[in-house]
Amino acid sequence: DRALKENPAAFDAHMRKAAAKRGKGDYAGAIHDHNAYLARRPGSAQMFRLLATNHLHLGDIYNAQIYVARAFQLEPNSSENHRMRGLLEQCAGNAAAAIAAQRKAVVTNPKPGRPIWLVLGALARRTGDTEALALFREVARDWESEWAGFLGRYLLGEIDETALLKRASSGSIRAVRHQRSEAKYYIGMVQL
After folding, report:
1. What pLDDT, in 10s, does the model give residues 28-80?
2. Which ranges in the chain belong to alpha helices (H)?
3. DSSP 61
């Protein structure tokens, strides 16, 4: 709070405060902090995406969609906006629209992060979208020696759940915790 009092528009202070609340499951508190930031600087697409994420954690897809739409008004070609739209479509049970949004996230970002690709791969496998799987296969084959490579092989149907979970259980305690969490997330995405 001290950083906010000294500099009310301090982006980092708002982010840390909101992240601390979000980390404790206080999504309403994080929303309050994000709105306080937007009251001073209303042109932050990132803040609108964070508001959407927090509303999504509360199960409020309607308001999450409103905030993603506001982010699109500010940054119409943002891959992060398309990624968020894909997540919202996925939560709403619309796999085809989720895949379309994830494709746009990949196309609008010359170097999209692996999470975007992994979500596209999971949605493509679940729906049987061969075009999206082919696109995913082109990228995932470069991940062979990394943990992401095992996730990619699972999403392409090259290894089964058992093999993925076995690989997820190797490494440091921290790595295992992260890998098992990720493995279960993508297994769930494919099975839903």
Report:
1. 999 998 888 888 778 889 889 999 999 999 999 999 999 999 999 999 998 88
2. 2-6, 11-23, 27-40, 45-57, 61-74, 79-91, 95-107, 114-127, 130-140, 147-155, 161-168, 173-191
3. H
